[in-house]
Amino acid sequence: MSESSPTQEQAAAPEPAKEKERLFGLLDLDARFDLTRFRLIRALLKSRWMPLALILFNTFMFMIILVATLLGGFSAGNYNFGIMLVWILWWVLLMFVLVPVFARAWCLMCPFPIFSDWFQRRRLINIGEEPKKPWGLNRRWPKWLKNMWLMNVLFLVTTFFSGFLTVRPFATFVLLGSVILAAFIVGLVYEKRSFCLYLCPVSGFQGLYSQFAAAEIRRKDDAICKAHKKKTCFIGNEQGHGCPWLLMPFKFEKNTYCGMCLECFKTCPHDNMAFNLRPFGADLLVDTKLESKGLDEAWKAFIMLGIAVVFYLGFQGPWGFMKDMIRGTTLPGFLSYIAFHTVFCLAVIPGVFLAFCWLSKLASGNREVPLKKVFTGFAYTLIPLGLGVWVAFSFGIILPNGSYLLHIASDPFSWGWNLFGTANFPWTPVLTGYLPHLQGIAMLLFYLFSVDYGTKLARRIYPEPAQAKRGFVPILAALTAVTFLFLWLYMG
Amino acid sequence: MNRAVLQVLLAGVAAVALGAAPPAGEEHFFEVRARKFEYEPHVLRVNRGDRVRIRLLSEDVAHGLYVDGYDLNVVANPGEDGSLTFTADRTGRFIFRCSVTCGEFHPYMIGHLKVEPNTPFFTYAALLLVLGAGILAITAVRRRREA
Amino acid sequence: MKQRETIALGLMALATVGTLAAIFGYERYRRATQFDVVLIARAPEYGNWDPRTITVPRGQPVRLHIRNIDTVSHGFGLPAFDVAVREIEAGTATTTTFTPDRAGEFLFLCTVWCSERHLEMTGKLVVQ
Ligand code: SF4
Ligand code: SF4
Ligand SMILES: [Cu+2]
Ligand SMILES: [Cu+2]
After folding, report:
1. What is the residue range of B135's domain?
2. CA–CA separation, A82 and A76 (whole Å)
3. What is the ipTM of this complex?
4. Average pLDDT, chain C
5. Residue C121: domain span
6. Distance of alpha carbon A77 from alpha carbon A73, whole angstroms
7. d(Cα C8, Cα A347) in Å, to the nearest integer?
8. What is the best residue among A104, A110, A178, A181 to mutate for testing ligand 1's pocket, by most ligand atoms within 8 Å of CB?
9. How many CB atoms lie within 10 A of CB A188?
């Protein structure tokens, strides 16, 4: 959709030359608005209390959640503080704003790895006076696991139990407890945030979808980074730690693995780090040697789409037999649900998508371009659409169940407390009559993003513009079909 | 004999052509059986303007039925039915959900009320196709211009 | 700078141990001062009323705290003293006060159809 201007100067970098591209043909994709231009925000980002203060607050919240889910045991999830906070509030916030707008803003304030950080650094907030060896074994994460595959599997496996996790407080207790424990144990053995980078079940989709986000942390000026020989943002200095997510803040181009921990704002002596607002989806086009598009991220996109379908059928659909399968009334039923879910997410969706990619290659008339490149490249068009699907799904969670939050805020442990006077607030569905409309709008909006980025990706996959246009037609058909399918599920 | 068959066939074709829908303004009576965690029947189909009567029976524990968009609620205990009467004046597919905590899956106890024609769905689906076709057209025009 | 670390550690302690202490301390205080009897409600197959027999002295007001820790709604009825709590939703708690003015044994029961064995969900109030 964007104008290609052949007169544009080509960058000298070895990466493929960038033409000026516009989102929907309007918004320059290179446009950035740096929030550090405001003194207050800059000071906040550079303060060692950020993000620690937020992490401490969430530690407090999760303490309550853990107690509530443990005490809640096997009682009803809809009146349990932990269940409601985690699966209604947190999940919906993640899908509505945190990820699509602010990328890994949750990881910024996530309390799970704080104990491992604390242990490794031996300090909670300060930096040691002289460089000290961190505690723990500090092993390197094995190279062949430096990708999303493990998280893909772990997340999929977690969703097997969603029929328990979202309704049984104790199941949520076990899940949260194991994540916190695992984060600590992995921190004893492997360096820095290895757990967050390659294991945390909620890390994968945050990383994937934060490519779409409208915020990013990046260096401001390449030249300053080049001149600064001692890369303090990577090795750390007396102001802060070297990037805990093992990124090179002076170089990286993609949100996926930046945990927004804000250390690089502190360690950069030239104030060369920016917290940018940017057009949605800018990272979807990134494909550099260091941060190349890969099948692991492609599969993450498929899995997220598949989970949305299965969750819809099981949780928001009217079919009782599926609910019985998901909640494990019989073992064969539960196992067939797992089998269907796994095959659907890992094989069926990718298979169908592969067929469309094959058609795309056929239509383009280009025989040289490898099918794998077509497949991986176009898989990223599913990122905006996938987010749209989850936004739509989340409307179906929050509108009918949001009112429970008032009850549980006042009576978090089902002990009859009434902290804010709202303990007796009755269950009240809010605007659920408009649910189909909200879901329809969300789907169409994100469909447009997908299509727009699809045309841009096509131009990167096929060398000739004419090929790109022909090759995009089958992908357009696929995106339209997926959107239609979800419209039908949500309102048809 | 043959004529009768033909008539039935024709009527069938006509019914399919009209979306198997009886003319609007009719009265529909549904006996909805609620059990953990489903309604039977779980899809109620009516036309705009129809009078809808629902009798809610519970087969195990206390259940409710709340209709999205119509903001109506009814409760049934085993042996103590609930009933609901309303005019289906809003089109679309509306979820009806259990309103009495009836077990761990209670928040997922759901049924569908389809008030046809399902204008919202047709609107969004049509919009989608128009958008898709528009994009296709733009692409084609661009190609010709560039060629 | 040393000070900053101390403050952070203090806040961390507050967020973890402090939270725990506050939660359980407050609840202990509440139970000690606000209720005379705590009754747990569950469907018969998951444990029934607990305890099933409540013993109280005659003539003194009883502050009865009923906690439904089940997955279905229950109700509470004590016909002898005209006590009725219509619906206690799963995961909520209610307090009801009454004064038993006669000695003897009285039946209390669940008033919401909560399971196939709902009719077995009964208990005994002993007034001495
Ligand atoms: S990756 Fe997981 S554990 Fe790490 S900060 Fe993000 S959500 Fe928390
Ligand atoms: S680049 Fe590294 S140090 Fe900077 S915010 Fe991201 S994760 Fe933290
Ligand atoms: Cu129910
Ligand atoms: Cu009962």
Report:
1. 3-20+122-146
2. 11
3. 0.89
4. 91
5. 34-127
6. 9
7. 48
8. A110
9. 14
